[in-house]
Amino acid sequence: MAVVAVPFSVFCADGQIKIGQTSSTTFPITISSSGSYVLTSNLNVSSTSANAITIDADNVTIDLNGHAIIGPGEEIGTGSGIYANNSTITNCTVRANHEDGIYAQYATIITNCTAYENTGDGIQGGQRTCIECNNLKNNGEYGLTLVSSNNYAIKNTASNNTSGQFNNGGSNNHMPISGDNANWNP
């Protein structure tokens, strides 16, 4: 049974599925089954149009285990570090991706991540997303953008993002905004 479209995945004794980059890894790495995943190495993405990780299943937990998703640099493109839906993302660094570091479309929890030097936003939350305890810096647009409704963002730190630190583009969001060079530590 194939649950993840990567050349290297192993079930661990604790039930987590390990994901690591090999010389034959192609992007995006697509997670298409619910479950718990852990990254075992950094992901170095050279494509300007592919996401590094696309989560296409509900109820996915992915722990990047302190590893980084490193995009190709400053060219404008469409690939994000992580494109997620109805999942939990923890303990990651995403940098130098061509669009957003992390794009969470719906019902996603993002905690303890660092997003920096991405061409777009550090993190972009769609709807019903919880974004807590993240560090967002030196991104080409905002550190954090909420584009829809019913999002919760707190205890995030943002600095030196080109368009500003926090952008509340939706409605009914819990997002304390303190202005440029803001630190959220309520």
Give, in spatial order, the strands making up the sheet with the most strands.
1-2-4-7-10-13-16-19
Shape: globular
In quaternary terms, these chains amount to single chain
Largest sheet composition: 8 strands, mixed
Notes on the protein architecture:
By secondary structure, the chain is mainly beta. The protein has a domain of 129 residues. The chain has no helices and 21 strands. An eight-stranded mixed β-sheet has the order 1-2-4-7-10-13-16-19, with no helix packed on it. Strands 3-6-9-12-15-18-21 form a seven-stranded parallel β-sheet, with no helix packed on it. The radius of gyration is 15 Å and the shape is globular. It starts with 8 loop residues before the first strand and ends in an 18-residue tail after the last strand.
